[in-house]
Design brief:
about 270 residues, mainly alpha
């Protein structure tokens, strides 16, 4: 019994130590670096117009990508669960491809498919607009890296849903649209919300895919993660840490909301 208790204590301590070293200490390091020179330099870094433009651009484009992901991801999750067709398993496995690929590879694929010299890029230029090195390319890059979140959050809920409730609604005379809105959609909603928040948080932090396709023009296509990288390259770690705090705080709030949703769903 004593050996079992010591083993359990040692195991928990090792896990906590690993968590502290890998997660807590780097976060504390960012906050410490931000305020290392005092409040005034921190506020000067945070209030820099280029920094705020980068942060606001990132939030706006991440929101656009999240809305698209919610709409398309919910439909894809529905189709993969409710329909049986040739190639379904292959499509289902491809959903996780953005998790497996380095994000820089995703950016390169977007650059080759939509950039200057490509068929789509040339067609867009003839129509009077450009994709790569402009905001649309950033949204597409964010869509690529956040694509699986909503789908994988919705699928388990659809699999676990009791079809008897849906059949009962049809028996009582409800239309397909009304059954979806009153019976199916409330079941899917927690997954949609949690997937959307994870997609938004991931979009805020994206760097590898975006840096290749954004053009990184200050005040126009420079997003927060690339701005942070530029501040580090310019030997201004405090400025980079100050902007990082904004993203960290947003991510903490999103994770807290996600935890609240999951707790309410499980009844804890």
């Amino acid at each position: 019994m004593l050996r079992s208790r010591w083993w359990s204590f040692g195991f928990r301590s090792a896990i906590m130590l690993y968590f502290i070293i890998l997660i807590v200490l780097p976060i504390l390091g960012v906050y410490t670096q931000s305020f290392s020179l005092g409040w005034a330099p921190f506020w000067e870094s945070v209030s820099d117009p280029l920094a705020w433009k980068a942060v606001l651009l990132t939030i706006r484009l991440a929101l656009i990508a999240t809305v698209i992901n919610v709409l398309i991801g919910t439909m894809i999750g529905w189709v993969l669960i409710r329909y049986r067709f040739f190639g379904r398993r292959i499509l289902n496995s491809l959903v996780d491809l953005p998790f497996a690929l380095p994000t820089a590879v995703g950016g390169l694929m977007i650059l080759l498919l939509l950039g200057p010299g490509s068929f789509v890029g040339d067609a867009a230029q003839r129509l009077g607009f450009e994709i790569v090195f402009h905001e649309p390319a950033i949204v597409i890059a964010m869509l690529f890296v956040t694509f699986p979140f909503v789908i994988r959050a919705v699928q388990p809920l659809l699999e676990e849903m009791d079809k008897a409730e849906e059949e009962a609604a049809y028996t009582l005379g409800a239309s397909k649209a009304k059954t979806f809105l009153r019976v199916i959609f409330p079941t899917m909603l927690p997954g949609i919300l949690s997937g959307a928040m994870l997609a938004f948080s991931r979009g805020l932090a994206e760097f590898g895919a975006v840096v290749l396709v954004a053009g990184n023009i200050p005040g126009k296509t420079l997003i927060a993660s690339v701005y942070i990288f530029g501040e580090v390259e310019s030997d201004n770690p405090q400025g980079a840490a100050a902007v990082s705090i904004i993203l960290l705080t947003l991510s903490f709030l999103i994770l807290w909301l996600l935890n609240v949703i999951q707790s309410r769903r499980s009844g804890v």
